Automatic annotation (TrEMBL):
Listed InterPro entries: 23S_rRNA-intervening_sequence, 23S_rRNA_IVS_sf
Entry superkingdom: Bacteria
SUPFAM superfamilies: IVS-encoded protein-like
Name of the featured protein: Four helix bundle protein
Pfam family, one: 23S_rRNA_IVP
Organism: Chryseosolibacter histidini
Extent of the signal sequence: none
């Protein structure tokens, strides 16, 4: 496998970016009164996932990388709750976002493990 030249080469970032785009598309259908509530929070958390992966990629310290990837994991968990809440509020179900969030979660965990393994070696 060739080394990445940019954060855009990371599959985890690519999937996180797809997730952000999906969240924006999904939340467009939310009621107007949610504009500064759930819609804004959901979008901010989704952007945070991809943004923290991006920032972590640029860090030289492996511990800094892990910390930012862990922040991305926290934001992703927040988004998973927003998917549940949106469904329960009857704003619509979105199985695609559920699946994509699980995929990003697995990829983030694997990426963190690979950094941790690199620290040990």
């Amino acid at each position: 496998m060739r080394p990445s030249k940019s954060f855009k080469d990371l599959i985890v970032w690519q999937k996180a970016h797809q997730f952000v785009l999906g969240v924006y598309k999904y939340t467009r259908r939310f009621p107007k009164e949610e504009k500064y509530g759930l819609t804004a929070q959901f979008r901010d958390a989704a952007v945070s996932v991809a943004a923290n992966i991006t920032e972590g990629y640029a860090k030289r310290s492996k511990l800094d990388k892990i910390r930012l990837m862990n922040i991305a994991q926290g934001s992703l968990e927040e988004c998973k709750y927003y998917v549940i809440l949106s469904k329960d509020l009857e704003y619509g179900e979105n199985r695609t976002l559920e699946d994509l969030s699980e995929e990003v979660s697995r990829l983030l965990s694997a990426y963190i493990r690979s950094i941790e393994d690199n620290i040990r070696n």
